[in-house]
Design a protein that fits this description.
Strand 1, helix 1 and strand 2 form a beta-alpha-beta unit. By secondary structure, the protein is of the alpha/beta class. Helix content is about 45%, strand content about 10%. A five-stranded parallel β-sheet has the order 3-2-1-4-5, with helices on one face. It folds into two domains: about 130 residues, Rossmann fold; about 70 residues, UDP-galactose 4-epimerase, domain 1 (Alpha-Beta Complex).
């Protein structure tokens, strides 16, 4: 049984990953600064998994706390979801994004190296697409198709063949399924989050 640290662990992707990984028999420790989530999810995770979920409140840039967490909980691998991801905001606050996403990841890697944790799963994006989200929520998302913004990539493609070949993994749900799940999660968390 592996002991896994999930950074960004109380967010949507992190908490759902915690459920799946727990059900597969792994022990998970969630690490999050709660900047985009709330710790009320912890009680729900206990209800869903039937197990106590360890939670550490901390910033991904706190290398000392990460090192201590990895050592104290005898972590074997890290799943890294603690990235800021809003393109527009990243252009407005580039230093904050750089500090969190680049310096934070470097600090995490240094903490891992210092305690000999050599396995990392890195998530580079958690974007939600407008049309599928509108379909799932029944709400119109006001948007305009305009020229690329500063920071946008010219084209973006994803090919899941490598995951299939190397990990024997295939997505079991569609984009519509994922957006519907996101919407249900958002609705269940509305009272606990502030805008």
């Amino acid at each position: 049984m592996s002991r896994l640290l999930i950074t960004g662990g109380t967010g949507y992707i992190g908490s759902h990953s915690a459920v799946v990984l727990s059900k597969l028999g792994h022990q998970v420790v969630l690490y999050d600064n709660l900047s985009n989530s709330t710790d009320s999810i912890l009680e729900k995770l206990i209800q869903i998994t039937g197990q106590r979920i360890h939670f550490i409140r901390g910033a991904v840039r706190d290398t000392g706390l990460l090192k201590n967490t990895l050592a104290t909980h005898c972590i074997n691998a890290v799943v890294h979801f603690a990235g800021l991801k809003a393109v527009g905001e990243s252009v407005e606050k580039p230093v904050e994004y750089y500090a969190n996403n680049v310096q934070g990841t470097i600090g995490l890697l240094q903490a891992m190296q210092s305690v000999q944790v050599k396995t990392l799963v890195f998530s580079s994006s958690a974007a939600v697409y407008v049309q599928a989200f509108e379909k799932a929520s029944g709400c119109r998302v006001p948007c305009q198709i305009v020229a690329r913004r500063a920071g946008d990539v010219a084209a973006c493609y994803a090919n899941p063949n490598k995951a299939s070949e190397c990990l024997s993994w295939r997505a079991m749900r569609s984009l519509d399924d994922m957006c519907a799940s996101t919407w249900r999660f958002h609705q269940s968390q509305r009272s606990g989050l502030t805008s």
